[in-house]
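Exercise 7.
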Amino acid sequence: MQSLLVRSPVAVAAFWIGTYLFITLLPLLVLLLHHVPEGRSFWTEFSVALGFIGLAMMALQFALTARINRIEASYGVDIILQFHRYISLVAFSLILIHPLILFVTEPETLQLLNFLEAPWRARFAVLGTLALILLVVTSIWRKQLNIPYEPWRTAHGIFAVSAVALGLAHALGVSNYLGLFWKGVLWSAIALTALWLLIYVRLVKPWFMLKKPYLVEEVIPQRGNVWTLALRPIVYEGMRFQPGQFAWITLDISPFRMREHPFSMSSSGDSPERLEFSIKALGDFTNSIKDVKPGTKAFLDGPYGVFTTDRYWDSAGFVLIAGGIGITPMMSMLVTACDRKDDRPFLLIYASKSWEDVTFREELDTLKDQIDLTIIHVLRKPPEDWSGETGYVDKELLERYIPIHRATRNYFICAAPKMMDQVEATLHDLGVPVTNVHMEHFNLV
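Solution. The predicted structure, written as tokens, is:
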């Protein structure tokens, strides 16, 4: 019984949440194990507590962005990165509130802002706060500031390391609570762990990727201005994945350059000897996919994601709701089901702009002969002789097609954010349990 609990996704997810809370609150435990310096007010102690918690949260950001498989498998990369964004703002607020409380309750501490005359511990605090402000500003307003992704990512790492290192130097310099040797060792271990995670992401993981290269076998044009990039491993058996997962791709350059882009696999999860990524031409990188030559070297970091039918082996069937290029992970789920001779029913509701824009139109028709698959195309601009569904995937349409016993199915949604939000809300209105609805957002950077 105990082994079953340890392996269950809920138990693992709860374990990581508990671990995060423990490490975050560890500074408070450290404070409790130290005598309170004489003559210090409640607000001073409260300010110190906020500073320690904020510093611990900042150190933990390195773990959240390291793509650690055991953690990612419990939540999904998209949820972890969303949490990373929001909790960074919380940590930022706590760290800023820390000196503001001191300035209000002890006005004499304002002298520490005189950078040239202040002691080094205060200079570390000022420099660390500036690094943290630059990190937050360049992250929130990166696009408005027209900062390219690659330089931003490098600067982001530098600012993060600087903020944590300078914050720790400030705490050690003040030494009211870290004067004891073992407490200094504890915080130094936290800082070194954060540094190791950064080294792992920037150096160790790219080195492993370098040992498992792929070659572009072909680039296949698809309907809807989509191009399928087919990769074949060179020196090993290839990457197995669960249908619906994704990987970061680095094309024609060293993985140490950190120019990688996330895309869902569209091929079968049971065919590692050939991986396919179907990519819609929407930006600078994606527009260049059609020009990639066979023989181009590629590197993959993955697989990642919990948006997969494999997690719901006991489901009676699946409802897949896709919009545009959101068909990519659904295609992987369907072709994998064909390879496995899955006899469960699949309902695909596929929204497209026009009939000519329906990516995988012919391939999907072929799949209907191999598995129990029903396809409902929904067109915004249908041809004159169109007799199928038109407009948008709304409540009336979903009510017509989804099963009466709605809790027996698992529902996967992949589309533009607005469509996903609307479909999710509608499914809830129709009585679909929230635990049966699965989405994956790809706003990862």
